[in-house]
Amino acid sequence: MTLASAPAPLRFRSVCRQWRHAARQQWGLLPPALPWLTTSHKCVFVGFPDGARLSLPVHVHAGSWETYGRWILCRARAGDGVDDGNDHLLLRNPLLSEETSMVLPSGRIGRVVVCPGGKLVAATGYIDGRHTVAFCRPGARSWSPAPPCPEGADQLLDIALHRGKLYALYDRGTLCAYDLAAAGEPGASVRLCIVGSDRPKTEAEARFLRLSERERYYLVPSPSRGGRLLLVRSKWGEHLDVFEADDASGRWSEVTRLADDEALFVGAHGSKGLQTASRYDGGGVRGNRIYFAGETHSMRIGMDNPASLGVYDMESKTTSGIGLPRGSFVDDCKPTGAWLFPSTAHL
Question: pLDDT per residue over 288-306, tens digit each?
Answer without folding.
Answer: 999 998 765 444 444 344 5
